[in-house]
Amino acid sequence: MKGLGYAARRWWFRRFHRSVRFGWMAVSSGARSNDLTRVGAGAVMIAFGLVKGRKSRRLIYKTSIDVEQGTTVRVMKGRRPIAETTPIR
User: Fold this and answer.
1) pTM for the structure as a whole
2) How far apart are CA 66 and CA 74, in angstroms?
3) Pairing relation of β-strands 80-84 and 74-77?
4) Of 58, 89, 55, which is closest to residue 72 (Cα–Cα)?
5) Which of 13, 36, 37, 51 supports an S-S bond with 21, CB 3.0-4.6 Å?
6) What is the 3 state secondary structure string of the chain?
7) Is residue 48 within 8 Å of 19, Cβ to Cβ?
8) What phi, psi does 75 have (nearest 5°)?
9) Alpha-carbon gap, residue 1 to 7, rounded angstroms
10) Greatest CA separation found in the chain?
């Protein structure tokens, strides 16, 4: 069951900036050893990660098409197509 808790924590912390996870580990270990300096540093790292946030999505490609012109959208992963739409009219 220990592996399940690890997987759940990794899933949860993936939502935030990575400094939140490192800060949480510092706060936890500082609280266990009564080290207020480590708790404070961890809290600062958590606050920094929450302010910084995750990277926003980035637009890769944008185009426009004329009326009566069809197009197909193909999603590539590396050099391999992983999805394709039917022609859009």
Assistant:
1) 0.56
2) 19
3) antiparallel
4) 89
5) 13
6) CHHHHHHHHHHHHCCCCHHHHHHHHHHHHHHHCCCHHHHHHHHHHHHHHHHHCCCCCCCCCCCCCCCCCCECCEEEECCEEEEECCCEC
7) yes
8) -95, 125
9) 10
10) 70
